[in-house]
């Protein structure tokens, strides 16, 4: 009986309280909305590529529940923007995402507006600045109207993408000699070979690549100083048999802009994506490609920055890379497989596995290079440098190959220990480290097998575990300071006159690594 009485009392109180409230009695908006900001800047986008989603918070600071009669885009159905208001897309048809009616907003509450855009730059030619697109969000058009500006910078670009069959929807794939038997093989690698008029990338417009841009027999892809190349997810460049890649950047005067370097990165231009690894595939120097050269390039945010395969016995090196930087690779910065690479004034940092891996043997010559890895050491298996001479097939059969590797005046460092792994399974395994700063402080390995540091045939005048005094390696700022252990460590017999920034090296005692030391500003 007491329980029933309590229930009746609660029910009566609830009914009385509800009858006194004015919930769902909305008053028209009076133009007193408040906004998180008065302008929403949608970061730079390429023409006809969708942006990220941005949001705007709208506040009702009053004690009254209100209804906003309309929320709309000033350019109406012709606007390149589209909106979602608290999970709704507004009116149907052409006005969807453009026009909303009677949007309710409770007292002292807020709502979210989500904004995206896809802009066709060819329609902007009549604007004063054809690369700037603007619109407004209008709230309560009429005497109580308020507005928030929308601004987007749009970049024109040269787009390279595989063809799609209109009937089947199948995207074109590349055909090349995968197994080395002299017969072209069909692959599942989406992409196409570049046409002759596409083989020079200039600095006039950025290039956006979908799938893999192929460089075939007799073709040379040349990238001129200042070229900008952007890759969509799972995209890259593949240089097949008889093809050549020449990246011909030059020293820049502004190290923030890098106006003369060739920059290869993803097609996401928003700051959020600026340093996210693994956004695109790789630059793949396939078996049979030849005389590839890279000078003054920045390669960032790939899965593998550069993959160079085979060719260790060719007359010329498969790849010569100079004055270049490779950052934020989700797997390897530079991966060689039984290949030949010469590297001078090269910086590699922040790789999910190794920054440089020379596997299945190969011929490698690195001089004045900074090979570091400050990726979270808990999530990577390998050190900054990995050298091995073997591969294990699906039958657990071990195949070995000859290794010849020399590292001179280099820094080999990182946030793990040791940062050098040498694995030999019985092939000719020849290597030498000369005048290098190396992180290796592991008594379980030091002095045994490949790590007999007293062996002058393999180790000469190296320094172990001294602080390289990097500027900020977690942000890929790899210059060394005045307290670096690499200072004056280099051997002038192997010296290149200038460092990666064009600074003259100290003679007769150059610093190890790609940079001469500087005094950091506070």
Beta-strand percentage range: 35-45%
> What is the overall silhouette?
elongated
Low-confidence runs of at least 5 consecutive residues: 7-22
Rg calculated over all Cα atoms = 30 Å
The helical percent reads under 10%
| Count of folded domains | 2
Number of strands: 41
Number of helices: 1
Verbal overview:
- With 522 residues, this protein is mostly beta strands.
- The protein folds into 2 domains: 27-155, Immunoglobulins (Immunoglobulin-like, Sandwich); 158-494.
- The chain is built from 1 helix and 41 strands.
- The strands form 5 sheets. It has a 27-stranded mixed β-sheet that branches.
- β31 (390-392) and β32 (398-400) form a beta hairpin.
- The radius of gyration is 30 Å and the shape is elongated.
- Residues 7-22 have low confidence and may be disordered.
Quick description:
The chain has 1 helix and 41 strands. A hairpin with a 6-residue loop joins β9 and β10.
Descriptive terms for the model:
27-stranded mixed β-sheet; Immunoglobulin-like; mainly beta; 41 strands; 43% strand; 1 helix; six-stranded mixed β-sheet; 522 residues
Spell out the blueprint of helices and strands.
Layout: H1 2-20, E1 27-28, E2 34-35, E3 39-46, E4 54-60, E5 66-73, E6 81-85, E7 99-105, E8 109-117, E9 132-139, E10 146-155, E11 158-160, E12 173-176, E13 185-193, E14 200-201, E15 207-209, E16 212-215, E17 220-223, E18 228-231, E19 236-239, E20 244-248, E21 262-266, E22 280-285, E23 292-295, E24 297-300, E25 302-309, E26 319-329, E27 332-351, E28 356-367, E29 370-373, E30 385-388, E31 390-392, E32 398-400, E33 403-408, E34 411-414, E35 420-423, E36 429-434, E37 437-438, E38 459-460, E39 463-464, E40 470-472, E41 477-480
């Amino acid at each position: 009986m007491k329980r029933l009485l309590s229930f009746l009392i609660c029910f009566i109180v609830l009914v009385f309280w509800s009858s006194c409230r004015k919930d769902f009695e909305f008053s028209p908006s009076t133009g007193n909305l408040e906004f998180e900001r008065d302008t929403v800047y949608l970061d730079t986008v390429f023409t006809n590529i969708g942006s990220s989603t941005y949001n705007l918070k709208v506040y009702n600071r009053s004690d009254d529940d209100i209804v906003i009669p309309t929320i709309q885009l000033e350019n109406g159905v012709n606007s390149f923007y589209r909106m979602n208001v608290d999970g709704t897309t507004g009116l149907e048809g052409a006005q969807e995402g453009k026009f909303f009616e009677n949007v309710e907003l409770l007292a002292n509450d807020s709502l979210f507006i989500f904004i995206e855009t896809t802009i066709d730059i060819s329609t902007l030619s009549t604007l004063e600045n054809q690369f700037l697109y603007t619109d407004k969000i209008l709230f309560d058009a009429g005497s109580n109207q308020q507005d928030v500006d929308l601004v987007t910078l749009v970049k024109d670009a040269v787009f390279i993408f595989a063809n799609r069959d209109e009937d089947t929807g199948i995207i074109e794939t590349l055909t090349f000699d995968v197994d080395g038997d002299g017969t072209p093989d069909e692959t599942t690698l989406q992409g196409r070979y570049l046409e002759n008029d596409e083989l020079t990338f200039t600095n006039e417009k950025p290039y956006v690549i979908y799938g893999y841009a192929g460089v075939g027999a007799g073709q040379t892809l040349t990238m001129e100083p200042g070229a900008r190349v952007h890759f969509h997810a799972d995209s890259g460049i593949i240089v097949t048999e008889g093809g050549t890649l020449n990246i011909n950047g030059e020293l820049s005067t502004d190290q923030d802009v890098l106006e003369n370097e060739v920059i290869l990165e993803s097609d996401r231009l928003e700051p959020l994506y600026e340093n996210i690894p693994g956004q695109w595939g790789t630059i793949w120097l396939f078996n049979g490609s030849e005389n590839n050269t890279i000078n003054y390039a920045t390669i960032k945010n790939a899965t593998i920055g550069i993959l160079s395969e085979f060719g260790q016995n060719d007359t010329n090196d498969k790849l010569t890379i100079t004055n270049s930087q490779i950052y934020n690779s989700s797997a390897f910065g530079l991966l060689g497989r039984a290949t030949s690479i010469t590297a001078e004034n090269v910086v590699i940092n922040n790789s999910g596995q190794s920054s440089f891996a020379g596997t299945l043997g190969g011929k490698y010559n690195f001089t004045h290079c900074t090979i570091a890895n400050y990726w979270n050491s808990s999530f990577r298996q390998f050190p900054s440098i990995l050298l091995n001479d073997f591969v294990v097939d699906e039958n657990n059969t071990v195949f070995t190959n000859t290794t010849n590797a020399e590292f001179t005046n280099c820094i080999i460092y990182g946030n793990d220990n040791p940062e050098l792994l040498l694995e030999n399974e019985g092939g000719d395994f020849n290597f030498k480290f000369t005048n290098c700063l190396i992180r290796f402080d592991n008594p379980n390995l030091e002095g045994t097998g490949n790590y007999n540091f007293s062996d002058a045939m393999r180790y000469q005048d190296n320094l172990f575990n001294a602080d390289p005094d990097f500027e900020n390696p977690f942000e890929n700022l790899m210059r060394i300071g005045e307290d670096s252990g690499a200072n004056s460590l280099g051997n002038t017999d192997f010296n290149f006159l200038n460092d990666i920034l064009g600074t003259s090296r100290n003679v007769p005692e150059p610093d190890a690594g790609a940079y001469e030391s500087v005094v950091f500003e506070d």
